[in-house]
Every structure is written in C-alpha cells, then in structure tokens.
Amino acid sequence: MKRNLRFFFALFFAKGTALVLKLIGRKGTSMPGSWAIILCPDFLGRMPRPKTVIGITGTNGKTTVANMVEDVLSRCGYDFVCNRSGTNVNTGVASSLIANSTFFGKPKKDLAVFELDERSSPKILPYLKPDLLLCTNIFRDSYKRNAHMEFILDILEQYIPDSSRLILNADDLLCAGLKPGNQRVFFGIDRQPGDKERCENIVRDITVCPRCGTALSWEFIRYHHIGRAFCPSCGYASPKASYRVTALNEQEGKMAVTLPEGEESFPLLNSSTINVYNALSAIALLSEFGLSAGEISSAMSKLSISETRYSEEEAGGKKVILHLAKGQNPIACSRAFENIRDYPGKKAVILFLDDYFDAAHSVENISWYYDTDFEFLNDPNITQIVAAGARHWDVCLRLLLAGIDREKISHTREKETSPSLLSFSEPDSIFILYDVYTIDLANQVKQATKALLEKRENENEN
Ligand SMILES: [Zn+2]
C-alpha cells in the first residue's frame, strides 16, 4: 500500500501523542497506535515494515514465549523492535512500529518480534506478513472474547499469509492443521511417564478425525486434546516433529531436545508441562530464525520464567506461591489446578478467578466454570480453598459439585481480606491464583498472607 497524505497526518499525529505521553511520564501505552488507526484505518498496511518480522500467537503461552525469544535474541546481540511493554492487538503493534521509526516512518531496526493476539489477526497479519509465525496451541478461551476455537481457527486459516513460514505444535491437532499449504515445521514432546491413555479433563476440543469423521485413537493424551492421535480409518495422524523434547531431568534442571541439527541439552526453566512446551516452541522458533542450538541453550541458561506469572516466596516457615490462572480461560485454570494438586506437601488455595474487566461491571458469564477441572482441587493434600470476588457463591457451588468437602471451602466478596479466612496450621504452602490483570491485587494479598504467617510464627515463638 502506498503512503498517502492521510497516512503521514496519522503518523505525525501519533508521534506527537507519543511525545506528549513521554513528557508526562506515561510509558507502554498503545494510545499513539490507536490514534494512528483512527485517523488512517489501514495504517499498518501503509507503515513500512522491518525487513524481518517474527510473530508469536496461539491461545496460551504467547507472552511467556515472546519474552523468552526476546531475551535470547538480546543476549545473542540482536537489536529489534517488540511490543513487550505494550499490547498484543493492532494498536499495540502500530505503537511499537511508530516508536521505532524515523521522522517519515522508516523502520530504525531491521528485525521485529511481535506477540500477536489471535483474535486480532485479521487486523494485523495481512499487513504485517510475518516471515516466521509461531502458534503455541489452540484451545478454547474466554467465550466472550474468542467465541470458540473453531472460530479462531477459521480466522487464522483465512488471514495467515501464504508466505509465512509456520512453527506449529505437533501435539495439538487443531494447531497442527493450520494452513497445510504453507512451509512449516513442528515441535512436540515425546511420551513422558505422566502421560495417560484416557483424557482426565472435562474439555477435549478434538475427538474425531478432521478428514473423515471417525473417532480418533490416541497413542497417549497429555491433557485436554494435547497428545498424539491417529485415525484408524484413513491414516490421518499427528505430524512428525522436527523439534522434540526426548527426556526431562528435573533433578539436574535439564531437558534433552532433538533438533534438525542434532541433539542438545537445554535448561529446564520450569518443569510444568506448559512451560516445557513454551521453552521448546521458543527453541524451535529461534533455531528456524538461524541461531544455533548451542547459542540458544547458553542464552536460555541465564533466564527465568517471568515472575509476574509464577513466583514462590517464604514466610513463617511456609511457602506463598503466586500462580497466574487467567479468568474465563478454562484450560489455563485447569492446568493451574493440576499443578497445585501435583505440588508436594499440603496446600491451601486462594482463588481470584473473576476477569478483572468483567468484574468491573459484574461478571456476566460463568459457564466456563463448568469447562474447568475444579475436580483437581478435590485432593486430600489440599486442605482449604478460599474463593474471593464478585462470583464467590458460584465458585463455591462449583467446588461443591466437584465433590470438595463443605468444611474445606470459605468464600467472600472481599478479595483484599481473603487471607484472614485461611487456617494456617495444616498447609505447607499457600497458592494464590489470580487473573492476568489483577497482579497488583494478588501482590497485595500475598503481602497480607505473608504478614499473617510471620505474625503467627512470632506468636508461636513467644
Ligand atoms: Zn480419518
């Protein structure tokens, strides 16, 4: 698309807005991009793109993976533009491009790494045309935002450019089936000791062969529809992965990966399966970009999973753990619940599951509670569950339907005071599950929990 007068007016106006925002000390806002797109709706199509664009999309894990990819690239000496401090929708991408452009809009850097919201892809992908596009996975997500995974798959199928080289999850048949005509490689994790023959989850988004409709047979199921499947009628099967985790060694904190260039050991930043997939997808993307396995591994050994997603602290001889769960996302919550069940020792849990933006005007949709495996919290080692927030009665009902003892459940509308409902004698760890937009509140509750634990320890000593 040609750059016209309207484009330049939008660009200069956006640059002016960015300058004003900078002068008043506001960072990381997508306002300049919003203005650019209001004034020139096809702004992204007219804005010159950096020479190489890497896109990272998918339902879960894209922020963690994008951060990891950016950290490795920085450590390997690459200079690039990214939307890390902004948003992953079209206005955030536009803001990043504007901030990194010359007066007339020419890109200052040759490389761009963008986390891309899958729902916004019609407004981004046809313009940005990523050279490399990673899709981490496709799951059902918030019904309100994303409708259903088939709707999202249709959007991606329609708007991913034919020229994009794809990096796809071989263990996710929904993701693996995207754009079969494009150049693509797959990543996957070999069968591991915890993998199952049957699905333990309420939700499994693919059950029949997409080609002929016969019920799929499974070599193994890891969770939900993640695993390796084949069709007994027509031979359709999970694709072969070029990037495979072959073994995990938790004690040594390492994972063995087979890549097209050979075997390599990588640091195991976090042993939860989702984070193994995140790290593996980042490795596949960086390797396809051109880094050697050795370079990636040595840069990764200096990283950790972002503390805003998971953090452990100690207070009064017990652990206080913040764990992101994502409101309205049944898969992210089910994974978090399973992690808690499998965490060693006795545990208490505080749940803030309301979506922050939804909760501001009351929470409309609770159907997702019934897609979420609250049953994982029905475990003898989980000694107490506190449900806090606008929908605490509904969460309480769902916990009861999961078979959890009434005596273990407390609930309150007041999130800030929820730690006071905890009984601290039994658990070794206290988990605080929160939505992505409630990190400040989660930190506040963490501090309150730690203060109560420390007070209790002091009283016991006296
Ligand atoms: Zn079939």
Overall strand count: 17
Low-confidence stretches: none
Mean pLDDT, rounded to whole units? Answer: 92
Radius of gyration: 23 Å
Q: Please state the oligomeric state of the protein chains shown.
A: single chain
Structural class: alpha/beta
Let me know the largest β-sheet.
Answer: 9 strands, mixed
Write out the distinct hetero groups bound to the structure. zinc ion
Number of domains: 2
Q: How much helix is in the residues?
A: 25-40%
Strand content: 15-25%
What is the CATH superfamily of the largest domain?
Mur-like, catalytic domain
In the CATH classification, which architecture of the largest domain applies? Answer: 3-Layer(aba) Sandwich
At the first level of CATH, the class of the largest domain is Alpha Beta
Strand order, main sheet: write it out.
2-3-1-4-5-6-9-10-11
N- to C-terminal distance: 75 Å
Quote the CATH topology of the largest domain: UDP-N-acetylmuramoyl-L-alanine:D-glutamate ligase
DSSP helical segment count: 15
In short:
With 462 residues, the protein is an alpha/beta fold.
Tell me about this structure.
The protein starts with a helix and ends with a helix. A hairpin with a 2-residue loop joins strand 7 (217-223) and strand 8. The mean pLDDT is 92. It contains 15 helices and 17 strands. The strands form three sheets. Strands 2-3-1-4-5-6-9-10-11 form a nine-stranded mixed beta sheet, sandwiched between helices. By secondary structure, the chain is of the alpha/beta class. It folds into two domains: 5-186 and 251-300, Mur-like, catalytic domain (UDP-N-acetylmuramoyl-L-alanine:D-glutamate ligase), CATH 3.40.1190; 310-461, Mur ligase, C-terminal domain (Protein-Tyrosine Phosphatase, Chain A), CATH 3.90.190.
